[in-house]
Amino acid sequence: MAHHDHPDHEVVEQFHPTSGRVTGWLTVVLAGAVVVAGLAYLDDGFPPWVLAAGLLVGVLAWAAMLRPALWATREHLVMRNLADTVHIRLAAVEEMAVRQVLAVRAADRRFVSTVVGRTWRKTLQSRHRPGGTDTGAALAPTEGMHYADFVENRLHDLVDTARSRAGVRPGSTEQLALPDAVRRQRDWLPVGLIAAAVVLLVVSFFL
């Protein structure tokens, strides 16, 4: 993650994944074991396509389950997803909710992060966030609080503060007119790795 000297780019909250990391690491380790075994026994008849498939599965597990991240700066909510990174201006957020994934609406578009989410049962049991703009609330998870609830409250606090600073109300014309509401950056490393693994898998069927 790149850090910038400008205070608006300083990370004020790094949100931890609520699920998927253990499965992701297990998948990467197992896929790595397949690749190592394939390289070691390739001359002994180990199927090349199995080696290539293991590589593809490992790359996909890393890109889809381990690479995604979520953090907030003073001015932006940043979602790093499988193949891109989205910077959403906090003051431009129109709606936001944590269900099975985090869903954010800004600039008349919907953006999703799989980093934070609730189970289906927790989603049904979750209650609406109380009103108010007390930016001192929910600065840290309280005892017994589900982490997804903390994330939702904290994000609402950050959004409320950013809206107040920008002098806009949710859904207002002024909010919709905010410049640079969303910036999406394509991340070529995972795209290139996935493409290379797919090509290798296809080629392996002809070896």
TrEMBL record:
It comes from the Bacteria. Keywords: Membrane, Transmembrane, Transmembrane helix. The chain crosses the membrane at residues 22-42, 48-70, 188-206. This is PH domain-containing protein. It comes from Nocardioides zhouii.
